[in-house]
Amino acid sequence: MLGTNILLSGNNYSKIALLFRFMNMGVVNAATFYKIQDIYCVDTILEFWHNKQSEVIQRFQGTDVVALGDGRNDSPGHNAQYCSYSTMADSTKEIISVGTLDKRQTGRSSVIMEREAFIQTVEKLHAEVKLVEFCTDAHVQIGALMKRGKLKDYGIKHSLDMWHGAKNIAKKIATAAQVKGNNILLTWLKDIVNHFWWCCKKAVTAEQFLAPKTYSYIRDLQAEIVAKRLSSGVGMPERRPQRPDDPRRLGPLPPIPHHPHKNLLRNN
Prior knowledge:
It is built from 10 helices and 5 strands; from the N terminus they run H-H-H-E-E-E-H-E-H-E-H-H-H-H-H. It is α/β, with parallel strands linked by helices. The chain has a 5-stranded mixed beta sheet with strand order 3-2-1-4-5.
C-alpha cells in the first residue's frame, strides 16, 4: 500500500524514502516500488481512468461543451521529452481528456509538441461530444490552427483565458504607446486592463468560480489495485519487466520510415 500510495499521491519515491530514513523507519526499496508500479498500478489506473472518462463523456452527449485546455512539458525549453495536455469541461470542472505526447512522435521537435497534443485532443473530443468552444492560453501555433489551420472547419470558437487576454492587451497598448504622440496610452494602460478584467468577470462569488479538488475516487482505485494483486496468483518477478508501452521501446530516433534503397541508388 505504501508503494501504491506514493504513486497515487504524485510523490517522489526518493524524497519519501529519505523521509523514512530520517525517521529511522523501514520503507519498500526502489526496485520493489517500480515493480509494484509496473505490474499492479499502471494498467489498473489506466482502466479506472478510461471508465471514469467514458462516464463523463456519456453525460455530455447532446449538450454544448465548452472546454478549457492547457499543455505542460516535463521540462522547460527545447530539452522537453514529453508533453501532457489536459482538458476540463467548463460547466462541471471535470477532466474530460488527458493526452501525453513523446518528442519522438513529432520528429524530435519539442517546440510543436503542445500543438500536436492539442490537435489530437480536439479531434478526439470533436468526435465524442458537441464541442462548441475551446479556451486555451495565447499559444501562437494553436491560434493559427483554429483561425486558418486544419481545425478551422470544425466550427469551434477559440477563446483565450482572461489572464493571457489581459496580458496581450497590455503588451499591444504598450507597443502602440511607443509611437510618437501616443504616450498618453501609458497613463490609461492600467485602467484599460482593469476594465477588461471587469468585463470578463461573471462569477459573483469565489465558490461559483472555483471547484474544490476532491479525492473521493482514491479508495475505489486503491481497492482495484489490491484486487489485481490478490487475483494475480503469483508474486512479483525478480526482474522488473518492461511494459509494452514503455517509452524506451520507441528507440532514440523518431518513427519516420526510411527511404527505399532503390530510390537512394537512383538519386545517386
